[in-house]
Design brief:
The protein has 288 residues and is of the alpha/beta class. The chain folds into 2 domains: 121 residues, Quinolinate phosphoribosyl transferase, N-terminal domain (Aldehyde Oxidoreductase, domain 3, Alpha-Beta Complex); 156 residues, Alpha-Beta Barrel (TIM Barrel). Helices cover 42% and strands 18% of the residues. The strands form 3 sheets. The protein has a 6-stranded parallel beta sheet with strand order 6-11-10-9-8-7. Helix 8 links the parallel strand 8 and strand 9. The longest helix has 32 residues. It is elongated and about 75 Å long.
Length: 288
């Protein structure tokens, strides 16, 4: 089971979602549900999914009423078949019904990301490659969307602009002809920055890759929009010059149809923006 600490940042996100939905109060439930009535609701998936969001459900429920309780049947990261029970909510009916939409919004969205990630990761299974996310996330949701990627069997790339160096094509355009020399200077400077996870450089050609491979201290080279054939040549070039490092990352145009071929080229990393920015919400119901 994968755990998600409900931080102050995540609580703020939950509070915002509750405030925009609940407003001044749930007038429908107040009108139709007797005061003091208690009940039970079942969270049931209506399709095969990889679960994500159960770690948030209890925190959401407590925002409405501390008496609402969740018993989890399938935790985050678990696989659930169509019709399976994910969890049971008990407590006063008015706040339970008020919480329904916000609970499902988070659960369906995050499970959509974890389910999409699991499908991509499955295609790369048996190779050296792992599926990584990107910064293409919903504003404000990055922490929990990256958590959903982990639940689906993927890995997290850099969190933001602050925790890793990624020199992209627009940066390289300012370097001029001295690519290797300039990179070597930057690597030396970067090594003095505390908290950096890695130093990565994007290339769009094999000739650029050859220049980058001359530089010590580069951890990852991103192969931007390379074809599988070009990736194989890149892997061969890297192996012949520097062994298994730096790692090579495929990026650009990755789909479920081509990821297996990409993984089989020998790259270690495949970054896929679609697992966060284009993952469809899954179908989960809250049944009384």
């Amino acid at each position: 089971m994968i755990k998600l600490p409900v931080t102050k940042e995540i609580k703020s996100l939950i509070n915002l979602a509750v405030a925009e939905d609940l407003g001044t109060g749930d007038v429908t439930s107040s009108l139709t549900v007797p005061t003091g009535l208690k009940g039970t609701a079942r969270l049931v998936t209506r399709e095969d999914i990889t679960v994500c969001g159960m770690e948030l459900v209890e925190a959401i429920l407590k925002t409405y009423d501390s008496r609402l309780k969740l018993a989890t049947s399938i935790p985050d990261g678990g696989r659930a078949k169509k019709g399976q029970l994910l969890g049971t909510i008990t407590g006063p009916m008015r706040p339970l019904l008020s919480a329904e939409r916000v609970v499902l919004n988070f659960l369906q969205h995050l499970s959509g990301i974890s389910t999409a990630t699991a499908r991509y990761a499955k295609q790369a299974k048996g190779t050296r490659a792992f599926v990584y996310d990107t910064r293409k996330t919903t504003p404000g949701f990055r922490t929990i969307e990256k958590y959903a990627v982990l639940c689906g069997g993927g890995k997290n790339h850099r969190t933001g602009l602050y925790d890793a160096i990624l020199i992209k094509d627009n940066h390289l355009a300012t370097f001029g002809p001295r690519l290797a020399a300039k990179l070597a200077e930057l690597v030396e400077k970067a090594q003095k920055i505390k908290g950096l996870r890695f130093f990565e450089v994007e290339v769009d050609s094999l000739s650029q890759l050859e220049e980058v491979l001359k530089v010590k201290g580069v951890d990852i080279v991103l192969l931007d929009n390379f074809t599988p054939a070009q990736m194989k040549k890149a892997v061969k070039m890297r192996n012949s010059i520097k062994g298994k490092k730096p790692q090579l990352e495929a990026s650009g145009g990755i789909t479920l149809k081509n990821i297996k071929a990409v993984a089989q080229t020998g790259v270690e990393r495949i970054s896929v923006g679609a697992i966060t920015h284009s993952a469809p919400a899954v179908d989960i119901g809250l049944d009384i």
